[in-house]
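User: Teach me something about this protein's shape.
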Amino acid sequence: MSNDPRHPDDDGDAEGDKKTRLIMRPDVNEATSGTPPGGTVIGTTRLVGGLASPAQALHAPPRHAGAQAKTQVVREGTVDIEPVAGWIVIVKGPGRGGFRPVYVGMNSVGRAPSQRIPLDFGDESISREEHAFIAYDDETRTFYLQHGGKSNLVRLGGKPVLQPTELKAGDLFRIGNTTFRFVACCGPDFDWTTEVEDA
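Assistant: First, the predicted structure itself:
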């Protein structure tokens, strides 16, 4: 086997024999580059959270000058788009002006990226998982808000939500220190189960 990692012998290229190799770059001089010691973190990659679907990752807004590059999730092949039933818009608290989509069915709400509605904008009073649930029943075309059993109450119109309560377009509700306004897409006039006429 050759000692030069840039030119390995052909006999070591079997699929099971491939190993990571170090290839020295001529444009980098170790003596002057100030190479950090082994194990030092020299950069990070962060997945952008809170995107409603892979389609949003494909059409994410361009970053402004001076912003750090961000890794985005893009899946190969066809893109599955999950129908949006409505949105929650942050009207008071950290993240004001931001929004999150509400999907058909049961939506868990919390700060963790694993939640169907991730509220990852800085309000630490929101539980990481299942602080609340927002459900859309496509058979009755009705939205519901319910608490997730956490000690920090969910409030709708200033009153605590202690059981599933109907959520109507324009309603204000609070989770943690953040107030949201509910915006409906689906309802009595429209639902994804019905066909829409051409505009």
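Now, about its shape. The chain has a mean pLDDT of 77. The helical segments are 30-33, 54-58. If you'd like, I can walk through any region in more detail.
User: That's plenty for now, thanks!
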